[in-house]
Each structure stands twice: as C-alpha cells, then as structure tokens.
## 1
Amino acid sequence: MKYHNILMLTHSDMSARNHNALTSPLVTVMMAVYNTAEYLRLAVDSILGQSFSQFELIIINDGSTDNSHDIICTYSDERIVYIRNDVNLGIVKSRNMVIDRMKGKYLAILDSDDVSLQDRLERQFDFMEANPEYGLSGTFFNVINADGTIIDRIRFPQDDADIQAYLHFGNCFCHSSVMVRSELAKKYRYSDDNLLGEDYHFFIDISSETKFANLPFIGCYYRVHKRNVSYQMNGEMYASIKEINRQNLLKLQIPFTEKQLEIHSHFLIFNADYFSDEDNFNQLEDWVKMLIAATKEDPKMDRPVIFKFLLHRWFVICYKKRMIQRVLFTNLLFTYKMKYISVMLAEAYDHSTNKYLKKLGRAAVLSIK
C-alpha cells in the first residue's frame, strides 16, 4: 500500500524515518485513534482546514480493528505524522508516545471523534503567545450526539482563580479544546496511575505551576456516543475518579470517612441512583452543607463558581430523585437565603422546556456574586 507523503510508523520502527512535513511546527496536534472510523475523517479534516497552518498533526492509531487505518492512509498532507501501534497499548501510553515525538512549541489536542472549529488553533495560539504566564488554555464547546446534532452548550469557568478552585471538585476543560505549552506536557505527561480520568489528572498536575484559562469562544464540538469512554461510568473509571477525589479532599484539608468519600464521589458524578437509599440521601445533605461551609472558610475556594457548582449538583440529584421537598425544606435555604434561591430558580428554569425560562435561569445564576 502506498502511504503518499505521510509518515506511517509501527511501534517497532518509530525511529526509522523522518517525515517531510514542516520541520519546525509551532503547534503539534495530537489525535489518538481507536475504532472511531465513523467519525475520523471529520476530525482530521477539521484540523487540516484550520486557519492556522503551522502545525504537525500526529495521528496515533492504537491498534484499531475497524478501517481507521485505511482512512488515515487516504491523506497526503505532509503535516501528518502517522504512528500505528501493532496492538492496543491504551490511551495513556499512546498519548505519551505523541508527547515524546512532538516538535511544536504547543501541544493541541483533538480526540478522533470530535471536531475543531476552523479558527480554534489560531485564536488559542495568539492567546498563548500574548500571555506567557498561562501554560494551558481551553475553550467553550458544544456537545453533539452521534449524528452531529448539538445537544448542549458548555461554558466552563474562564478565570484562572475560578478554574484552580473548580479543579478540586471536577474537570473544567474539554480535552479536545486544550492547548498546553510543550515543556509542561513533557514534564507532567499522562499518568499511568490514572488510566481513566487521565486527562483530569493531567490538568491537576499542571495546575501546580501555571495559570489556566478557558477562552470565551466555541473551539470544538465534543461528541457523545455509546462507544466513547466518557459515555458510561464503569467500575474502573469510578475507582480512578474516587482516588482523585480522595487526593483533592486531602489537599483542601477537609476531613472525611470512607463512607463520606463514597457520598462525595457519587455526588460529583450525578449518580442519583446511589441516593435512592434514604440514609445515603440524608448523608448527602449533611455533606453538601459541610462542603459549602468548608469552602466558605478557604479564601481560595470561597468563590461564587464553587457555591454554584455544589448547589447545581445538589439540585440535580434532588430533581432526578423527585425529592423537590428537600430542595425547599433544608437548612441551606435558611443559611444562604437569596443566593440559594437564585441558584434554585436557575436550575428550575434550566430544566424547563421553555426557551425564555431557560434564559431567565442563566441570567439568575450569572447574577450571583
């Protein structure tokens, strides 16, 4: 088979050849592929069609058994570097192989079932160049389904202080929207200790020495479908996230029992079924009260974004379990009064099918200071 002008390497002969693409790319785009042939061409085309052209695109095919290999080999763009693993090595090893080979000043990421908007690389590159104190940036993004229909619009915190606080409770970056300075990517890499939730762990590690931003424009479409890892929370993923939660609570110096860690972990992933047990639900309410009080006492965590984050999860669990009376009859309402009511109204409006009410809800939550 002819491979045109792209470099195709197996795991065993990666150092055998040099590709004839741009010798000094400013950005390396990483795309890990595993059985995503259905979406792969759209993902690759969205990078090759960028308004910013000084990049290399490293595609690593991690032992796919579908026709992903054949699709990749149809491309002749010299900016593509193709690495083909003989067997499936896993996402962490594959991504770290790309980091080892990257030439760019920055590493940009696009997963092979997602789509980058045309000006994403250009706008992120310009921001990173103009703001050297920032080591990593993401963007806003839209969530799409398997058919490409937009099903949600995500606007994570933009400000570094908000992001640093948020990361103690959850990931606030879309992996496919991230651009990071290459020296930080090479220093921290993806952790073998967190084979699931590895991107969240990656961001936490990097946050220790740099500033973060989410840029206020739509940089990518994140696709949700039955085959991607994030679609379902299996036992291995839950265990990985639970361990990250343990470390985050220890950093915040919030005391907890193993049962409370379970409550905390199921709370953060919106697992309403876990709280069907009345005792678990009662413990959840106590835990939310304690978390809000503890974060209010910590200057770095006493931020509106954290208050909204915790109450959002509380309300979603209540709504899913049809425990609306618990929303109204709680000490949280009497303690935080109008701030609590504002978030409660925002959640109620957001669950409405009326677009005007949804707009009112967003305005209410944005008004909290």
## 2
Amino acid sequence: MLTVSEAIKAILTEVRRLPAVRIELSSALGRVLAEDVIADLDSPPFDKSLMDGFAVRSSDLAGGTATLRVVAEIMAGQVADKSVGRNEAIRIMTGAPIPEGADSVVPVEETRLLGGPQSEVVIEGAARPGRSILKRGESTRRGQRVLAAGRQIRPQEIGALAELGRAEVQAFRAPRVAVLATGDELVDATCAPGPGQIRNSNEPMLAAQMRQIGADPVSLGIARDETADLREKISRGLTCDVLLLSGGVSAGKLDLVPAVLAELGARQVFHKVQVKPGQPIWFGVWDSIVSRPLVGWIERSEAHGAATRWASHGSTHPTGGRDTGPCYVFGLPGNPVSSMVCCELFVRTAIRRMMGVEPAEPAPIRARLTHEHFSSGSRPTYHPAHLQMTAEGALVKLVKWVGSADLAATVEANCMVLFPEGNRSYAAGTEMDVFLW
C-alpha cells in the first residue's frame, strides 16, 4: 500500500498538462498563462500626476511659501494647452498629464486658493522635483515582459492584462471532470430517503470542489451497483478529461467499480493508500487510443443511444469532453469525508498539474494547536479543523469529528490537520502541518 507522498508522486508521473487555448480575458480568472505577455507601450504612457493639486516649478518655491498665478486647469484625460511659466501654477487632477514646464505637484491639502479677479494660489507645502509625479514608463517599459508563462491569473493579473490591451490570452485549458456517485442506497437530494437509503451528497460536493479549483464539472448522476449501469455511466465519464467516482471501490460484495474499469480498458496505477479517511482510493488511466475495449463495447451497446454513437465515432461527447487523450480516473471511497479528503489531496493535485499550476502537490502551512489532542492509528489522519490567523500567529482548533461519515463536522472546518501514524499525545501549542480547504 502506498503512502500519501508515494501516491501523489504516482499521480504526477502520469498526469500531463492540457493543451493551451485562446480564451477571452473575462473567462481567464484562475487559469494559468501559457505565454509570456509583453508590454506594447510604456506605462504610464506620459508623466502623470499622482495627486489632486497644483503643478508647479520647484525653483519658484526655493524660498518656501509662495503665491503663484493659476493659469489653467487639467482633468484626467485632458492635455494642457499651456505650459507652466515662472511664478505660475496649473491646477491638476490625479492621472492627468504633467504640463510642460512643471516638475512637481503640490497636493491640494498643502495649498490655499485665493479669490479675486485673478486667481492665485498660496503654496504652503514643499515642491521637490519629481514630487507626486509618476514618470513615463516608470511602471512598465515597452517590450518588457510583464507576465511570464506559468503564472496563475488572479484579479490583479486580469487588470494588468487589460492595461496591456489583451482582450484574449493564451492559457491552459480547464479540465472537464465527470462526477459519478455509485450505490443502490443513494437517492437524489430532493427526495425523502426510504428505509436504508441516504441522499446523494458526494456528487454535488465533488462537483463544487472541482468548480472551486477552476475545473469544469459534469454531473452524471447516480449509478446503481449493477455492472451494466456502471459500465454505461462510466463509459460516458471516460470521454471527459477526468472521471471522479465515489463509492464501489472497497472490498464489499457490490464494490464493482475496479472490475468495470478494468473491463473497459482502464489501467490501474494504484489501489489503496495509507491515509485516514480514504484508504480504498483507486487511481488509474484510460487512454482513448490504447483502451480499445471501451470502443468495442460502445459499438455493441444500445443502452445510451446517440451518446454512444458519438463516442464510438470519436466525435465530441454530449458531456463536452475531449476527443482524444487520456482520461484520469479516481475511484473515491463512498463515505463523504473520505471522498472530500481524497479529492483535496489527490484529485486537486491532478487538476493543478493539468491546468499548469506548479507546484501541483498539496502545500501545507504550519499552525499551532489550540488544545491538546491524542491521535492513534496505523495510518496518517487528516482531521477536520478550523484555522485562525491571530496576533500570535496561525492557530488551529480541531472540530468534533466522529469519522468518515460525519460530513456535518466539515461545515465547521476550513482546513485539515495532519497527524502522523502511531499513538501520540500532542500538547497545546504543538506546530502541525495544516492543509486549507
């Protein structure tokens, strides 16, 4: 059985980045640049005022306070039709171009405007050369690389790209992720469960986790614990970039998922990891070219009508998946916290790699426990917790949690704390590895 780090290494060995595509800037948030972005002009394109105030010649104020004649006013977006001469000033607004002759801007708070037939201003503040002026090209020079390939696009990158005139950008494609819950006991969230039934929480939860990281989830509903139903729905999911299954991967009589995946040509990379919760996780790869059993089955199947015909002819599947290339398959345990933890540790690693986010592996932060805790077991445990940043640093408090079926406990959590395997008491104040949710 692999350790968590070994499983993550195996995933990163298999998973490849998706191709780059051209997308509109409005859709680029969270994506990763696939190209360097070069400035096409200086920024700012002219010397501009950083303050509302008066543009002056610093030499006119060498002796301190001075009274100057106001000869014009410039708003942002305008260009002065006058220059600043000796003992003159031009009223200027933030962002407006500096008029010829001026070398300093005195903020309006340090001035006093005089009335009368000829407007004058008393300058009471210092007028150092270059004060409150952003020089042309001081932020960015034309031809300069502003953003490098590999950078994830945040709101500030969106702004920078817009400033650079980029209405479109080359970025790595977001993966399409099919999400399928399995189990005879599951009913839709809108239904009242009957005897022995539970509502399907894993599918919407996993879809939300994928959406949160920037992937494009496709919900496939519920597959019953029957080989034919599993085969049909898994085949649909295999036309996407990633297939997430929850349930059916343990050692029970109806844990049929690994066998159906093998029948459809998926290559198992690993099954079971030393982790709590989530030990039964399955990971493998289905290749659209190598894995011929799926195509053969699709050509024989009458269970899914037109969708099977599209897939068998190599066209775009109605789920919106890719035409060629591998599908990375994760069989997650059915218990909801197990599914959630495995998605955070393993699936997100794959998605980050596919989207070009590096490093792709989970990155913990360090935080101190707010109370003592005793941890036991033969596997590392990822315990739901709440992280808070305080004046004393990062503090983490474990939430009350009774096991992998206790999804309600995670509502109070925003992270998970890693407790290594073995029996050990942890004192309050102990520094721990914490993984954000």
